């Protein structure tokens, strides 16, 4: 576990190493006024004015050194411009020369994130502390870093240690921390009331039995906010089994639930004036003699019937029942997060969550928040013309159309069938994984769209 609260401290003039900030356009001018020993150090360290480059600058004593680093724009910091320094500098305290770190505080914290659950030898380096003259920003930044780390930790955890019962335990720990209550439905009650969740998860071992996890928090007079997260703790593909390469990362198929849990934690920590309803359908899509089959017609909580055309399109099935339940309380807004389709990754790659909404105001607010937070989203259409692809000859609809066209859109259209009309709703098709490391963003589990969603919620409910 990474403890972020100690890594940002108010600047009260305490001793600290100085971080000089330059960009490509200002580098030569800055270098020209430096003392000879600094120019020599930069030459010796072969520093060039390229992104994240840095060099140590000697001072009058061995402990009196500073550092210079190159950012994209000295006038507008990104969250990640100091993240490389946080990963590589020696332990100690630091302050930015001439300005406040602002949004770069987040990258400073996340640059020191470590997932070491399975390592025998833990990371031994001490903390790098960043000083700021904006102490009011510290608490929010720490909360965002903790929420991001929570997503990363949950997704990085192996499926042997991250089953439906673990997600239930995470929800209960969150509820205990914030005075919420948790309701868990499983067994015969799940089969009766949430038949698609039960169908997908029934082949798992008893210790990984399917369940719907619900958390309730807030007061009745506040607008109701529903957060839904796909909790497929491991996805073999079911009887439509995945190849080995496709199954390799399927421990991350509960990434939607990790996002929903982290966002719920932010809502409660900030005491946002909402009536929160968190729903996590938690299953393992396993293979056994009682596994659901291609061609089965599934009942749903909504009363629709679904012809199961692909057991590897299971995420939308469990979300359908959860979205139905969410809608029954007449929420002001529903947000769902899911590692739902490979089609979204083909279209947008790993960094951009495909985002859908049937409400123009909600979608515009999300896109603007993503831009403001450097947490980008990309809107894809709920194209009504593709709704006919969901037609079934023997049931009300299919879960996965033949042909593979517009796969992320048809998945979103399937989910829309389970959202009440005129209820604002947004769907995030996230990858929840970073295939290659970047400063402050190691390879592995990742929160995508989380900060954008959080900013939108604050603007909607806390204005």
TrEMBL record:
Keyword Heme: no
InterPro entries, A to Z: Leucine_aapep/pepB, Macro_dom-like, Peptidase_M17_C, Peptidase_M17_N_1
Biological processes, Gene Ontology terms: proteolysis
Database matches in Pfam families: Peptidase_M17, Peptidase_M17_N_1
Annotated Cytosol aminopeptidase domain residues: 310-317
Enzyme Commission code: 3.4.11.1
SUPFAM superfamilies found in the cross-reference section: Zn-dependent exopeptidases (SSF53187)
Alphabetically ordered keywords of this record: Aminopeptidase, Hydrolase, Manganese, Protease
Top-level taxon in the UniProt lineage: Bacteria
A GO cellular-component term linked to this record: cytoplasm
A molecular function (GO) term: manganese ion binding
Keyword Coiled coil in annotation: no
Membership in a protein family: Belongs to the peptidase M17 family.
Protein name: Leucyl aminopeptidase
């Amino acid at each position: 576990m990474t403890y972020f609260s100690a890594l940002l401290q108010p600047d009260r003039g305490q001793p600290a190493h100085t971080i000089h900030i330059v960009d490509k356009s200002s580098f030569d001018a800055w270098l020209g006024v430096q003392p000879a020993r600094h120019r020599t150090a930069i030459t010796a360290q072969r520093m060039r004015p390229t992104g994240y480059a840095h060099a140590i600058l000697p001072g009058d004593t061995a402990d009196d050194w500073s550092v210079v680093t190159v950012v994209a724009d000295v006038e507008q910091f990104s969250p990640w411009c100091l993240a490389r320094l946080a990963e590589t500098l020696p332990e100690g305290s630091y302050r930015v020369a001439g300005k406040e770190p602002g949004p770069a505080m987040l990258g400073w914290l996340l640059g020191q994130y470590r997932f070491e659950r399975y390592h025998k030898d833990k990371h031994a380096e001490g903390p790098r502390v960043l000083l700021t003259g904006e102490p009011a920003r510290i608490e929010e930044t720490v909360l965002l870093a903790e929420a991001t780390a929570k997503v990363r930790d949950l997704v990085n955890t192996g499926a042997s240690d991250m089953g439906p019962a673990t997600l239930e335990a995470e929800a209960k720990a969150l509820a205990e921390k914030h005075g919420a209550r948790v309701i868990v439905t499983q067994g015969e009650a799940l089969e009766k009331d949430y038949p698609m969740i039960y169908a997908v998860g029934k082949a798992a071992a008893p210790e990984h039995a399917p369940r719907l996890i619900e958390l309730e928090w807030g007061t009745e007079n506040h607008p109701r906010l529903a957060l839904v997260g796909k909790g497929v703790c491991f996805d073999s593909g079911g009887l439509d089994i995945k190849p080995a390469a496709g199954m390799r990362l399927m421990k991350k198929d509960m990434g939607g639930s990790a996002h929903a849990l982290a966002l719920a934690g932010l809502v409660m920590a900030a005491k946002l004036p909402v009536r929160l309803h968190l729903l996590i359908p938690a299953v393992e899509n396993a293979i056994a003699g009682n596994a659901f089959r291609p061609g089965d017609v599934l009942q749903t909580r909504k009363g629709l019937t679904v012809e199961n055309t692909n057991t590897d399109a299971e995420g939308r099935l469990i979300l359908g029942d959860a979205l139905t339940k969410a809608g029954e309380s007449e929420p002001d807004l529903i947000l769902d997060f899911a590692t739902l389709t490979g089609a979204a990754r083909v279209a947008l790659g790993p960094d951009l969550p495909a985002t859908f909404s049937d409400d123009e105001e909600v979608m515009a607010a999300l896109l603007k928040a993503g831009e403001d937070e450097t947490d980008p989203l990309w809107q894809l259409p709920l194209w009504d013309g593709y709704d006919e692809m969901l037609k079934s000859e023997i049931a009300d609809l299919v879960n996965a159309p033949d042909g593979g066209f517009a796969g992320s859109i048809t998945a979103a259209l399937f989910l829309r069938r389970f959202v009440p009309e005129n209820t604002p709703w947004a769907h995030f098709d996230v990858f929840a994984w970073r295939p290659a490391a970047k400063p402050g963003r190691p390879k592995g589990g990742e929160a995508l769209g989380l900060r954008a969603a959080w900013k939108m919620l604050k603007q909607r409910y806390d204005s």
